[in-house]
Here is the input.
Amino acid sequence: MVVQCIGCLNRYSFRVAVFSYFCFMQQSTHKDPLHGVTLQKILEQLVAYYGFDTLGELIQIKCFNDNPSIKSSLTFLRKTDWARKKVEDLYLRTLPKLNG
Here is the structure.
């Protein structure tokens, strides 16, 4: 976004234009596909795509195999770094299929 005539804009409009430009630049520079995606959204998308049965086969975690639910899985994943990492890695491998 290039402002042609700064004198033509009042201060408010100029601030909005600058703010919008920096927000756009900030969004386009994130290379991490997990940026801004919550663990709940990741888990919901994986469960919708695979289901708990297949998810339990792909990642051997008790919360996916024994009476699974989104709530109990989130509780476990938030406390357990290694399990969350496995779920995030599966999400990254599945992301092209989700978007395609």
